[in-house]
Specification:
349 residues, alpha/beta, TIM Barrel, three-stranded antiparallel sheet, 13 helices, binds zinc ion
Amino acid sequence: MARAIDVHTHFVPEIMPSGTGRNALWPSIEHRERNTAAVIVGGKVFRAIDSRSWDAGRRLQDMQLDDVDVQVVSPMPELLSHWFPVGDADALSSHINCSIAKLCSAHPRSFVGIGMVPVQDPALAARRLVDVKGLGLFVGIEIGTHINGVALGDPRMHEFYAAAEEADLAIMIHPLHPSGMERIGGRPELAAVAAFPLETALAATSLLTHGVTERFPKLRILLSHGGGALPWILPRLKYARALGPPLQDLFARDPDEMARTFYYDTILYDRLALRFLADSVGADHIVIGSDYPFSIKQDRPAQFAEQALGVSRETFAANTARFLNQAPSTIWSAVTVEQQQENQGETGG
Ligand SMILES: [Zn+2]
């Protein structure tokens, strides 16, 4: 059977470099008892975490319980630091990427990396992409749904997209510092619950209306959390385009068709919601995700996805191989070879 690959899991390093002389929002880790810790940002607890955020052993145990074979590991989004001065963002990116690389190199059959670069300086980010690719352990780069207020469709981002396309690295778009919280007027924890899906849909609309999918046809983009509210907005975009100018001029072609070039994870918690996503964008562009190890994580993500869509694990593995532009053999070859050897041993061949 094909292996279950969870493309949406997060990482926080056990140790963070000193923030002396750095931006006031430089994160630190405060270790507490029984393998728990807190991420401190601006002198306040940003998030309570535990050693699952960095400990390979604990992650591997949980993967067994969750029936996941490979985790694609990306930075906790708040670490992306798009609001830092470039030098600070560059230094933090380097530390986070090195920490993820250590995890992946120690367990190359179980962990694959998605890194980060100082994308607030697209020219520098383009150079750093080459460095990240050179490590041989990363399949993509994570960015927020806006770069400190710059929309993802903005032409200033194009240099970065061109470099990602050239380096053959996928882009994972994760909601971050979402708009709309003032409309809710509730606790900040509601950001991840209610504002993230809207934020992702806005970012996707920016990409669609600025021709990013057309300009960079080889770029592979993942929209987190099943694309958020995008599947609900798509029919409206399509209808509006059919009305003629001026909205028609914003779309190079049918928004539906362009949205089918993105990839989407399965973090939707509800079978009907996942089926609607598959009907909207095609089951061949859906990959398994969980948001491990945070409290909002979806348990047994592969089983959920298979049961919701009635699609086999092989299909999701094939989708993931396309999203990461990897021959299936490069992600799970070690096990395949091992299994082949075991099978040969069992049959005496
Ligand atoms: Zn996430």
